[in-house]
Design goal:
The structure is a single chain. The protein is of the alpha+beta class. The protein has a domain of about 55 residues. Helix content is about 55%, strand content about 10%. It is built from 5 helices and 4 strands, in the order αββββαααα. Strands 1-2-3-4 form a 4-stranded antiparallel sheet, with helices on one face. α2 runs antiparallel to α3, α2 runs parallel beside α4 and α3 packs antiparallel against α4. The longest helix is centred in the middle third of the chain and has 70 residues. The radius of gyration is 37 Å and the shape is rod-shaped. It starts with 14 loop residues before the first helix and ends in a 27-residue tail after the last helix. Keywords: Membrane, Transmembrane, Transmembrane helix. This is CorA-like Mg2+ transporter protein.
Length: about 270
C-alpha cells in the first residue's frame, strides 16, 4: 500500500486507484476498477484560494458509498453538493448587494473558480453514471450538479452584464464631462478672441478717458463698478456653464448604407 496515497488508509480500494493518484489531487475525474468506483472531486473553492482541496467518494463492490470527510452512505454526495449550493447562494447575495464596477468585479473573481468547479463536477458525475449504470444516487447527484452549474452560469452572466453596464455608464459620464469641458473652453476662447483687439489697443494707446466718475463722492464709484463687474461676471458664468446636451450619434447616410443583398445571388 502506498503510504503517500491521498485516499484514506482504511479504505480497501483496488491498488489501481492508489497508483493512479499522485501527490496532489489534480483535476476532477472518475476511476473504475473491479466493480469499484472512485470519484475525485474538489471542495468548493474559497475566495483567493489557489490550490484545490480534494474530496474522494468511493463506492465499493457492494454499492455502498464512503467519502473522505463527509461520512458514509448515499447522503455523502448530497452533502457535498449542498456546500456548492451554499457557496453559490452566498455569491448571489453579494451580487444583489453589489454597487459599482469594483464590487461586481469581486463577485466575478470569486465566482469564476466556483463556476468552473461546478461545471467539471457535473461532467465527472455524468461519466460516473455512464460507467455505473442506473445508480439512483449518481443520477440524482448528476441532476443536482446540472442545476448548480446552470445557476452558477446564470449568476456569472448576470454579474458580467452588470459589470459591463457599470463600465459603460462610467465611460459615458466621462465622455459627457469631457464634452462639456471642451464646449466651455471653446466659449471662453471665443470671448477672449472677441475682446482681445480692444484690450490690446487700450493697452497700447491708453484708455484714460474722463467719464465724470472722478467727481462722485467716494466710495460710490467703486461700489458701483464692483456691482456691475459682479453682474457681468454672473452673466458670463451663466453663458459658459449653460447645459450642454450629449452629442448625437451620426446616422449612416443613404449613400453609405449597407447594400441590399441580391435575392438572385447564388448561395
Amino acid at each position: 500500500m502506498n503510504a503517500k496515497s491521498l485516499l484514506p488508509a482504511i479504505w480497501e480500494v483496488p491498488d489501481a486507484f492508489r497508483r493512479r493518484l499522485g501527490d496532489q489531487v489534480g483535476k476532477q475525474r472518475v476511476m473504475q476498477a473491479d466493480d469499484h468506483l472512485l470519484l475525485v472531486l474538489h471542495q468548493p473553492p474559497k475566495p483567493g484560494e489557489k490550490n484545490r482541496i480534494g474530496r474522494f467518494f468511493w463506492r465499493d463492490a457492494k454499492r455502498e458509498w464512503n467519502s473522505s470527510d463527509l461520512g458514509t452512505g448515499e447522503g455523502t454526495l448530497p452533502r457535498h453538493l449542498a456546500q456548492y449550493s451554499a457557496a453559490i447562494d452566498r455569491l448571489e447575495k453579494e451580487e444583489e448587494a453589489a454597487e459599482g464596477s469594483a464590487a461586481y468585479f469581486q463577485v466575478i473573481s470569486d465566482l469564476s473558480p466556483l463556476f468552473r468547479a461546478t461545471r467539471n463536477m457535473h461532467a465527472v458525475l455524468q461519466q460516473a453514471r455512464e460507467k455505473s449504470g442506473d445508480d439512483k444516487a449518481l443520477i440524482n447527484a448528476r441532476d443536482r450538479a446540472y442545476e448548480l452549474e446552470r445557476k452558477a452560469e446564470l449568476l456569472y452572466t448576470e454579474a458580467k452584464n452588470e459589470l459591463d453596464f457599470a463600465i459603460a455608464q462610467q465611460t459615458e459620464r466621462q465622455a459627457d464631462a469631457a464634452h462639456r469641458m471642451s464646449v466651455s473652453a471653446h466659449r471662453l476662447n471665443v470671448l477672449a478672441a472677441f475682446f482681445f483687439p480692444i484690450v490690446t489697443l487700450a493697452t497700447i494707446f491708453g484708455a484714460d478717458l474722463h467719464h465724470g466718475f472722478e467727481d462722485w463722492a467716494a466710495p460710490w464709484p467703486f461700489i458701483t463698478m464692483t456691482g456691475v463687474g459682479l453682474l457681468l461676471g454672473f452673466i458670463l458664468w451663466t453663458f459658459v456653464s449653460a447645459p450642454i446636451g450629449p452629442g448625437k450619434r451620426p446616422r449612416r447616410k443613404d449613400s453609405e448604407a449597407r447594400p441590399l443583398r441580391d435575392p438572385h445571388q447564388a448561395r
